[in-house]
Design a protein that fits this description.
Layout: H1 3-6, E1 22-27, E2 30-35, E3 41-50, E4 56-65, E5 70-75, H2 81-89, E6 94-103, E7 106-107, H3 113-118, E8 121-124, E9 131-135, H4 136-150, H5 158-172, H6 177-180, E10 182-183, H7 189-203, E11 207-211, H8 219-232, E12 238-242, H9 246-252, E13 256-261, E14 264-269, H10 272-280, H11 282-287
Parallel strand pairs: 5-12, 5-13, 8-11, 11-12
Antiparallel strand pairs: 1-2, 3-4, 3-6, 6-7, 9-10, 13-14
Helix pairs in contact: 5-7, 7-8
The chain binds adenosine-5'-triphosphate.
């Protein structure tokens, strides 16, 4: 994975934008600071194709995510969920052919992947890649310091970084041995997923996109990962997760659930929609649209 996709820094400040007065609201036991005026992410009629084959995959996705909300996207295999997530972070395999995406008031589609990350987007991929020859701790330190540099702050040395890193390691319930190993090399599927959450904990994000973070996790690992995500989430942070399973939804309490079908969000609702999906499958839910 390109380092640039992982580097993230705090929100860039647009002096031309007046910040709306925040209001407090409660979402699934979490008190959220909500901006009534500006959604965190506003996706309108987003269309995209695969660059190599020219095949259209996204056929007009609409989605609004506000600060502090937890959104889950479900849907049949091949319905376009991962493509949507990858288009949001600027994956080079896809070309946007229509629509708009506004993130924190800025045109996300005009930003390079690194800028999206710096603007506060983080994505954990369905299949996190290995980075041979780069140890996990070095990688995290480099990514963290790149963020500091972009923020105009002083970079931190190993003595300062290590306690910060150990605290995050504890949050994810990972053993310190993983820090000396090359990024994801030889990691089991579950260890890779945990490592993604460690990266999120170290780098932070205003909107974290987790693509099937629950796949391949045993019950204990799933609980650890969900607990870590819950601790990372603050009232200002938002989460967009892609999943096929209810277990993680019960742990992360989504405020919104969406079903994607044929490259569009076909239906949106709350957690109760998951019961209908589990009982009757996606056909029934799609038929309601
Ligand atoms: N880079 C690519 N090259 C070729 N086909 C692709 C590429 N990316 C996506 N596709 C195709 O686009 C469709 C949507 O894929 P996507 O991975 O977005 O689905 P998904 O909803 O995430 O599926 P799943 O639930 O199985 O993970 C699939 O038919 C897939 O084969």
């Amino acid at each position: 994975m390109a380092l640039s996709l992982l580097i993230h820094c705090s929100p860039t400040v647009n002096p031309l934008r007046r910040s709306p007065k925040p209001t407090l609201r409660r979402v699934n036991h979490r008190v959220c600071v909500a901006s009534a005026a500006t959604p965190l992410l506003q996706v309108n009629d987003l269309r995209a194709k695969i660059v190599e084959s020219n095949v259209d995959i996204l056929h007009g996705v609409n989605l609004t995510v506000n600060q502090g909300e937890v959104h889950a996207i479900m849907g049949k295999n091949g319905s376009g969920k991962s493509t949507f997530a990858k288009v949001l972070v600027g994956h080079p395999d896809y070309e946007v052919t229509g629509g708009s995406v506004v993130f924190k008031g800025e045109n996300l589609l005009e930003m390079e992947p690194e800028e999206r990350s710096l603007a506060g987007l983080f994505m954990s991929f369905q299949s996190p890649v290995e980075i041979p020859g780069v140890s996990n701790d070095l990688f995290l330190a480099m990514a963290y310091n790149a963020r500091m540099k972009k923020l105009g702050r002083e970079e931190v040395g190993p003595i300062e970084f290590l306690p910060y890193l150990m605290e995050k390691l504890q949050l994810v319930n990972m053993k310190a041995d993983f820090l000396n190993r090359n990024v994801n090399q030889g990691f089991s599927g579950g260890e890779r997923k945990r490592n993604e959450i460690l990266q999120l904990a170290v780098l932070g994000a205003d909107l974290a996109i987790l693509d099937e973070i629950d796949s391949g996790l045993d019950v204990d690992a799933l609980r650890d990962v969900a607990n870590a995500v819950n601790r990372i989430l603050t009232p200002e942070k938002s989460l967009l997760m892609i999943t096929h399973y209810r277990r993680i939804l019960d742990l992360l309490n989504p405020t919104h659930v969406h079903v994607m079908d044929k490259g569009k969000i076909a239906r949106s609702g709350d957690i109760s929609m998951v019961e209908a999906i589990e009982a009757d499958g996606y056909e029934t839910v799609s038929a309601l649209t």
